[in-house]
Amino acid sequence: MNFASDNAYGAHPAVVRALAECNDGAMMGYGDDPVTARAEAALRDLLQAPDAVIRFVATGTAANALVCAQLCPAGGRIYCHEDAHIETSECGAPEFFTHGGKLVTLPGEGGKIAPHVLADALRIGAGGGLNGGRNAMVSITNATEWGTVYSIDDVAALAETAHRAGLPLHMDGARFANAVAALEGSAADLTWRAGVDVLCLGGTKNGAMAAEAVVFFDPALAEGFDYRRKQSGHVFSKQRFLSAQMLALAEDGLWLDLARHANGLAARLAEGVLEAGGSLLVPVQSNAVFATIPAAAHGRAQEAGAIYHLWPDKSAEGLDPVPIRLVTSWNTPHADIERFLAALAGQQT
Amino acid sequence: MNFASDNAYGAHPAVVRALAECNDGAMMGYGDDPVTARAEAALRDLLQAPDAVIRFVATGTAANALVCAQLCPAGGRIYCHEDAHIETSECGAPEFFTHGGKLVTLPGEGGKIAPHVLADALRIGAGGGLNGGRNAMVSITNATEWGTVYSIDDVAALAETAHRAGLPLHMDGARFANAVAALEGSAADLTWRAGVDVLCLGGTKNGAMAAEAVVFFDPALAEGFDYRRKQSGHVFSKQRFLSAQMLALAEDGLWLDLARHANGLAARLAEGVLEAGGSLLVPVQSNAVFATIPAAAHGRAQEAGAIYHLWPDKSAEGLDPVPIRLVTSWNTPHADIERFLAALAGQQT
Amino acid sequence: MNFASDNAYGAHPAVVRALAECNDGAMMGYGDDPVTARAEAALRDLLQAPDAVIRFVATGTAANALVCAQLCPAGGRIYCHEDAHIETSECGAPEFFTHGGKLVTLPGEGGKIAPHVLADALRIGAGGGLNGGRNAMVSITNATEWGTVYSIDDVAALAETAHRAGLPLHMDGARFANAVAALEGSAADLTWRAGVDVLCLGGTKNGAMAAEAVVFFDPALAEGFDYRRKQSGHVFSKQRFLSAQMLALAEDGLWLDLARHANGLAARLAEGVLEAGGSLLVPVQSNAVFATIPAAAHGRAQEAGAIYHLWPDKSAEGLDPVPIRLVTSWNTPHADIERFLAALAGQQT
Amino acid sequence: MNFASDNAYGAHPAVVRALAECNDGAMMGYGDDPVTARAEAALRDLLQAPDAVIRFVATGTAANALVCAQLCPAGGRIYCHEDAHIETSECGAPEFFTHGGKLVTLPGEGGKIAPHVLADALRIGAGGGLNGGRNAMVSITNATEWGTVYSIDDVAALAETAHRAGLPLHMDGARFANAVAALEGSAADLTWRAGVDVLCLGGTKNGAMAAEAVVFFDPALAEGFDYRRKQSGHVFSKQRFLSAQMLALAEDGLWLDLARHANGLAARLAEGVLEAGGSLLVPVQSNAVFATIPAAAHGRAQEAGAIYHLWPDKSAEGLDPVPIRLVTSWNTPHADIERFLAALAGQQT
Predict the structure, then answer these.
(1) How does pLDDT run across D289-330, given as a tens digit for each residue?
(2) Can you say how many angstroms the Cα of residue D254 is from the centroid of all Cα atoms in its chain?
(3) Can you list the residues of chain D whose pLDDT is less than 50?
(4) B169 and B121 within one domain
(5) Does residue C304 sit at the A interface (CB-CB below 8 Å)?
(6) Are B261 and B336 contained in the same domain?
(7) Is the CB of D20 inside 8 Å of chain B's CB atoms?
(8) Distance in Å from the first CA to the final CA of chain B
(9) Binning pLDDT at 50, 70 and 90, where does residue B33 land?
(10) Which of A24, A194, C281, D141 is positioned for an S-S bond with C290, CB 3.0–4.6 A?
């Protein structure tokens, strides 16, 4: 019963199989191989973006931080939510890769930035002169760090706000599959058609071992990106193995199936939490549940061996009700959900 | 009538004279000269810190950012007030010099951090794991960006909080002279005796052309600092001219006299603002006045040619009352104050 | 017949198997898993270094550059061979990760630095003052970029020279297995017993998909290293998959068997090159052959479909004899060697 | 008798006077002042470059390294002479400001790069793929670190070579005045008319306290430069004092007069060195003399109190003849030259 993170589970069998299948024989290194070509093509199809430039890296932090470096010039300001992964969970990687980019954080319910909040911040930022730096880019996460989802209209409104200020819009899609699975509409609708300029499309949380795609919908934005990857140690010599993972997820809609599984389990968790007397801190829209549960229920769940994080951190220990975060993944067993909910509810199982 | 900033006025005649006086003859470069030796000694005296390592740079941004680089290792978190100069007004220099240090900003009335707010933030930061980074240093500004002043006890409480967490305390003293002038107690009392580990002692706003001192009270903290200065282009070949400026300010208490002048004018401004129907946003303790004034008074001041900033920015234009910032300097004329206050009050002058 | 690089072939079946075998169930992320613990222990055993701190990353560039960042402070000078991978083939990664470390390159036959050349350079570097920067570390590659091997005595002499100057010695061991396979003596003899302080032990060229180990023989040198890894995007959330690769190589001496295979093929290539009228540019000691071959032989090899690099680059095209580089790997087929040599020799096959 | 460096002497009286003269009254900070406007205009006139973007910083290292950052993107290669100041004497500043730019050093007699050497290097660099990085810029120094001077034709040939490869040409003109004084032809002839894209025009060695101009002949190349300056702490709040220095040098041809003085003294030194049995290591073309002198003459000079550097470093102590470097400046006294030469020659004075 591990609900600590969607990286707790391993890789989907199709991913492991894909590694074995592309293993034979010699290929040129550094991406000049047929597996990479197929994987890039598969993602362009998936995104209906025939001109997109696509590159693979192994971690979400690398993907996000490299994109920040690509889009944020010296003295630049990067606008993001105050709970954005790039702000809270990447150990300063965006600042490191950008050599001093300033993350300007915005409040917003459920991990979402409201367009008028962004617009106000951009206006203030534009007036900061040399001392304040210059507006450089906007970054949103979808699905968000709170498990909520920006709708296509939400994204379009933020993109319009960013573009009006002359800035590109980056989407951290570590859980992009979960966002698409949560919505009516295609991956294209949620990204370039809505105005997203660069997407980090996560494979790892979706069922890969370690693979993320960086997607530049406008090829001009990718200029020199490969040098950045190499200079930061993120070009694989045997790149076929990175590419094969993304290819396996992209084929036959596997990526969406896996995300739907995770989302479905989270919805079930949410129900059960409410039934056990808990309440939700934000609406459950993808694969994470932020809730408070009675301390007694928490105690029973712990006793039953459930693993999950108190929220936002261990200082929540001892509160009643207890705020917690539960995350489901592509491989979380149904049975674990039911066992956990039974424990919450104090039922025999 | 320029109240835009305390850098609006030039240099004190003694500073200019000092440059001319040390100009003759050949000296070795890069700080290996007798003027530098005397200036360093003078500041050690001023601070009653015979073991301190002292270095001069030309800008406050350089001083602060170099100290951050010195104290903040890879993945480090730097705690400061949300209105700190290093956060708002250095164009990302701390992030640039630290190669990705994360500025963690804290709220606090009047630009001051409260010890319990710091303690809470440090506790949370200590639990962030690799993703969150590691606590690295605490930075406070005195006098603050709001013109308020941390007392000796205030500083000691923050130093104790920082030290308990194993972190050094940096003081951005761009207006250090104004802080000392505002308090009972010596420069030593306000710094190392209260627990400050590194001080940036500002010369520029105090009456120099462009000179700041970086003071490491613990010489061990200065290890390798000269290489950082050089690598960032902040070592002067004809360093005597940097040193001479600080020496001139340190001699005969000139630095304090100039700060008292500025502080006194600000106090007078505050009185006049109140008399003209304005109100103070924070107590006036050094050389800055943050206030709101009636729009009519603002109009009259503008008409009379007064130069000052709306606060926090131009978006305040059109409000009634109008929030403004007034800064006085070592050389602001008494007459300008009176003329300005007369305009505010609608009096003939 | 691909002799372009030892990264042309995929991963050893045992590596692929290891990924599948550790795939089941939930584990904590970021290295807090049992597979990582076992892999670290296995490498400590392999190196007879029970106190070593060991960390895994996915690329050799990351491993080397992160170690440089760890060992080279601001304004530091990094001494290496002029053909070192960190100088020629990492796109500035060491400079990027160190934020401006200066690579000081030394000449030396066969890719090897002579101790007196190092000693002279360190002496000059020590006298460069602020402008020149400070000596920081020494980096050698074993096996070298020219396929030669530093003996245990060679390493000890360089280590002594570095240590006498107060500097740590780093070994880029992208082909460390090939070096050990080429020598009498253990991995311990060639590293910490000879004075190596930090080793990058390559897995990728040795038969992994993408895995390298960074080994700090002195745990004190590893302080804060994990933050660097994270800040540069080199911490894997599902780290078990990185660890499992290294574990598979370490078990049952597979790493050495694979290196012996590659070395043996290179020795056979060298013989055949000489038989075909070519000559060796440097002695063949590990898994690379640098040679000149008659233009006619080159033509026949090309026609037969052999893939290899002209050396140092394409400008060698048209020369007679032609300088070339041939690299063998853990999986290069014996039959390819013979077919290639037959083509060189102009024999029917 | 200080011939250690041209930064051994202070500032020209006109420079000191200029500081005093612009000291009165309040001005806006950060360059938005009339003195800066006049200084920029004066330099545009001096260079006959009405569209040039001109910015002032206080040190040559800052000027050069900021320009490198401006012209060298991620993974870039910067071509320069192996004795270039940016390579040998800036403590890694170019690598720091560029975040990992790779300095590719070229040999060349007398500190000068030959066009065919540059062309060959650029061709090789262009073929290095991701691993090698990408060609980014060419940097030359004029007058060179060996006191020689690139003629207008020399510069034009290098510019053509750089431009053919699509690269901009930077000129480190720390001693630009000495180069112009050494040649027939104007500052314009030696820079933009010959193809220089960015010039660092040195004031400090020429007679300023600490002032350098960065000149972008193509304004497009200056995009965002001010943010870089600010982010690295090189924007002065009271910028008038930086500008006034350059203005004083530019007015009435003072800069050229001072350079001619220095060059003339060096020519006289060269004569005297030869008369005393020494020989020149390179032709004396500006204000530096690289020579070997008999050990006895060296002994007499030392005894007489002359200060100069052995070359390339102290290891030359004890050689006979002794290699030395002598540098003259805007303010080196004629009498010192004669006294030094008399000592060399063993004459009574």
Answers:
(1) 999 999 999 999 999 999 999 998 888 889 999 999 999 999
(2) 17
(3) none
(4) yes
(5) no
(6) yes
(7) yes
(8) 14
(9) very high
(10) C281
Q: Are residues A201 and A261 both part of a single domain?
A: no
Cα gap D239→D243, rounded to integer Å: 6
Residues of B in contact with D92 (CB under 8 A): 231
Per-residue model confidence as pLDDT tens digits over A246-300 = 999 999 999 999 999 999 999 999 999 999 999 999 999 999 999 999 999 999 9
- Is residue D164, in this structure, part of any structural domain at all? yes
Q: Select the residue from A7, A78, A83, A102 to test the B interface by mutation, using most B Cβ atoms within 10 A.
A: A102
**Are both D78 and D148 inside the same structural domain?**
yes
Q: Any CB–CB contact under 8 A between C129 and chain B?
A: yes
Q: Is the dihedral of CA A91, A93, A99, A101 positive or negative?
A: negative
| A213 and A310 housed in the same domain | no
How close is the nearest chain B Cα to the Cα of A124, in Å? Answer: 8
Model confidence pLDDT, tens digit, residues A161-174:
999 999 999 999 99
In order, the DSSP letters of D38-106 are HHHHHHHHHTT-TT-EEEEES-HHHHHHHHHHHH--TTEEEEEETT-HHHHSSTTHHHHHHTSPEEEEE
Q: Of B263, B59, B76, give the one whose Cα is nearest residue B172.
A: B59
- Best B200, B232, B242 member to test D by mutation, with max D CBs in 10 Å, is B232
Same domain as D199, residue D95: yes
Query: CB-CB: which of A101, A312, A314 is closest to B92?
Result: A101
Q: Which of C25, C66, C91 sits opposite A231 (nearest CB)?
A: C91
Neighbours, chain A (3 or more CB pairs < 8 A):
B, C, D
Reported confidence tier of residue C349, pLDDT bands at 50, 70, 90: low
D348 touches chain A (CB under 8 A): no
Residue of B91, B101, B312 lying closest to A133 (CB–CB): B91
Q: Cβ contact (<8 Å) for C10 and A57?
A: no
Residue B3 lies in a domain: no
Domain residue limits at B44: 13-252
Of D252, D278, D312, which residue sits at a domain end? D252
B257: left (phi over 0), alpha (psi -120 to 50) or beta: alpha
| Residues C167 and C270 occupy one common structural domain | no
Contact criterion met (CB < 8 Å) for B133 and C69: no
Among chain D residues, the shortest Cα distance to C89 is held by D131
Is the domain of A137 the same as that of A206? yes
Report the distance separating Cα B235 and Cα A10, nearest Å. 53
Q: Is C2 a member of any domain?
A: no
Asked if A35 contacts A261 with a C-beta cutoff of 8 angstroms, the reply is no
Number of Cβ within 10 Å of residue A218's Cβ equals: 14
> What per-residue confidence (pLDDT) applies to D349?
55
Please report, for the domain that includes residue A336, its CATH number.
3.90.1150.10
As to burial, measured by CB atoms within 10 angstroms (0-12 exposed, 13-18 middle, 19+ buried), residue A26 is buried
- Measure the CA–CA gap between C80 and C98, rounded to whole angstroms: 15
* Distance (Å) from the alpha carbon of A65 to chain D's nearest alpha carbon: 14
Q: Nearest Cβ partner of B99 from A96, A130, A131?
A: A96
Structure-block tokens of residue C132: 């020149």
Q: Which residues of C128-151 are buried (b: 16+ CB within 10 A; e: fewer)?
A: bebbbbbbbbbbbbbbbbbbbbbb
The mean per-residue pLDDT over the stretch A74-102 comes to 98
Find the angle CA(B273)-CA(B274)-CA(B275) to the nearest 5 degrees.
Answer: 90
Q: What is the CATH number of the domain that holds C185?
A: 3.40.640.10
Q: Which of A200, A233, A252 is the last residue of a domain?
A: A252
Which of B7, B36, B340 best probes binding to D when mutated, by most D CB atoms within 10 angstroms?
Answer: B7
Q: What is the pLDDT of residues B105-135, one digit of tens each?
A: 999 999 999 999 999 999 999 999 999 999 9
Model ipTM? 0.96
Domain count, chain D: 2
Does some domain include residue C127? yes
